[in-house]
Design goal:
Layout: H1 2-8, H2 10-21, H3 30-55, H4 63-89, H5 92-98, H6 102-113, H7 120-136, H8 145-171, H9 177-198, H10 208-232, H11 238-243, H12 248-260, H13 266-282
């Protein structure tokens, strides 16, 4: 889960780099590249897992779990599209904080949908983590003009991710990580491809200097990030697993300081410390 947290934290940095390289930050035409980025991230992840399956044979997945995986891929596609749009329209701080609120939704799903009893040993650290996250982005949070839409997109992307984790929890009880993930990513890529057709998006819109960054986006946050989260969800509550990406704002803010020269305030240091304490007690 620690490796997963480090890996997913690279995602907003890669997206920000691509948007800045192509001068699409806060640009209306940038919505097309959000779809293209989400499509290639899912496609590259799916291709790598299907290639891996050629050399490492996987058990046949049941029809019911295949259908669940396809549905989960649909929601994952919505998650990434809304997340990349949030980064484009808002700030990294806003997008990473509001985009990692999935534990709130998974907690609600577990209590009211799955009828599970949730221990205060989970709820209290979760409150601490959310509080620390709010402090972390306090001085950068902005609801002005287009940032408001970006923030709403980030909240919605958390909701879709929460739904995806609940389905993952069900499928992973009997299926392997590779079996689930390769269908998940394939379904997600196909969903994004359909979206690209509806909006007449050019999926090959990247400059040559961004191709390597797009490949990294498909490899690191997917294979070493999400795959490890889906592996963990078989053994740990989806609410706990979905809390791990909440460490993303800390790492993303630190990386943004060195790469984009974005100032690290006392809020980031104080809020980040609280998040780490919360994650420690949660795990």
């Amino acid at each position: 889960m620690i490796i997963a947290m480090l890996s997913v934290s690279i995602s907003p940095i890669l997206v920000e780099s691509i948007l800045q390289n192509q001068n699409l930050k806060h640009s209306g035409s940038g919505s097309s590249i959000s779809i293209a980025l989400a499509f290639w991230r899912m496609s590259i992840g799916a291709i790598l897992l299907w290639i891996y399956s050629i050399f490492q044979k996987q058990k046949t997945i049941s029809d019911k779990n295949r259908n669940y995986s396809i549905i989960s891929g649909f929601f994952l596609a919505l998650h990434f599209y809304f997340f990349f749009e949030a980064i484009r329209l808002s700030t990294i701080a806003n997008a990473t904080f509001l985009g990692t609120l999935a534990p709130i939704f998974t907690l609600i799903f577990e209590i009211f949908l799955l009828k599970r009893k949730i221990s205060f040993k989970i709820i209290i650290p979760l409150i601490i983590i959310i509080f620390g996250s709010a402090i972390l982005v306090f001085d950068e949070f902005d609801f002005s003009t287009d940032k408001t839409i970006g923030n709403l997109f980030a909240i919605l992307c958390s909701f879709w991710f929460g739904v995806c984790f609940i389905i993952s929890d069900r499928v992973r009880k009997t299926e392997g990580t590779i079996n689930y993930s390769r269908i998940l990513y394939t379904s997600s890529a196909l969903t994004l491809f359909i979206i690209s057709l509806c909006y007449n998006v050019n999926l090959f819109t990247f400059t040559y200097e961004n191709i390597f960054l797009v490949i990294l986006l498909g490899v690191v946050p997917n294979i070493f990030g999400h795959n490890l989260l889906y592996y963990s969800v078989k053994y740990i509550s989806p609410t706990i697993v979905s809390c791990i990406p909440l460490g993303e704002p800390i790492i993303a803010s630190i990386l943004a300081y060195f790469i984009f020269n974005q100032f690290i305030s006392q809020y980031v240091i104080f809020g980040g410390s609280i998040i780490i304490i919360g994650l420690f007690f949660l795990i």
